[in-house]
Design a protein that fits this description.
single chain, alpha/beta, 7-stranded mixed β-sheet, 5-stranded parallel β-sheet, 19 strands
Length: about 190
């Protein structure tokens, strides 16, 4: 008995022509004006992102080597930071709260695919990182995840489910290991 075959020749794109054109234009700007800008020119990079619909505070910090997929889905509050080599695959709304840092080489993945369907349709899902969070180096944040205010996610962790506020979380999958206690500043 022959195995069934799927007709994928006319599979519709999950993105309209306007989205594709916007991503093409952003890709050119990101590869040149954004990526080649010197590190101190933070406001220049914010300006470029805002030109493409991002809702980013003028006080946000985005390193020139950060890769942002669709800036019109990005929101960053005051002093929010995307570090070197961060990949922000913001197919859906991606929000980074006030004074939160996403450290180098982390990956914010705002979509998955419907693996139970024959054509694996793209399924965009939002990511929310609360205020005063630290996403340490090389962390993977899965689609649809919310990380609560004040939470720290340890280096090389993978976040597949929501994390509560005020915790230190580590591992794959990331789990809370203790409360985050803020010490008084010396002096």
């Amino acid at each position: 008995m022959a195995s069934p075959t799927l007709d994928i020749s006319n599979k519709p794109s999950p993105h309209g022509a306007g989205n594709k054109l916007g991503r093409l234009a952003w890709g050119v700007v990101q590869a040149t004006l954004f990526r080649l800008s010197p590190r101190p020119l933070k406001k220049w990079r914010v300006f470029l992102l805002r030109c493409f619909g991002a809702r980013v505070s003028w006080k946000a910090r985005i390193m020139p080597s950060a890769v942002i997929w669709a800036p019109w889905n990005l929101e960053m509050d005051d002093y929010a930071t995307l570090g070197d080599g961060v990949i922000c695959y913001c197919v859906d709304r991606t929000r980074i709260g006030r004074q939160s840092t996403v450290s180098q080489y982390s990956y914010l993945c705002g979509a998955t695919h419907g693996f139970e369907l024959p054509d694996f349709p793209l399924q965009p899902m939002p990511i929310t990182i609360g205020e005063d969070c630290w996403i340490a180096a090389d962390v993977f944040v899965a689609p649809g995840v919310t990380i609560g205010d004040g939470t720290v996610v340890g280096a090389r962790s993978s976040v597949f489910t929501d994390l509560p506020p005020g915790k230190v979380c580590v591992g794959t999958p990331a789990k809370p290991v203790r409360d985050r206690v803020i010490a008084e500043a010396p002096g």
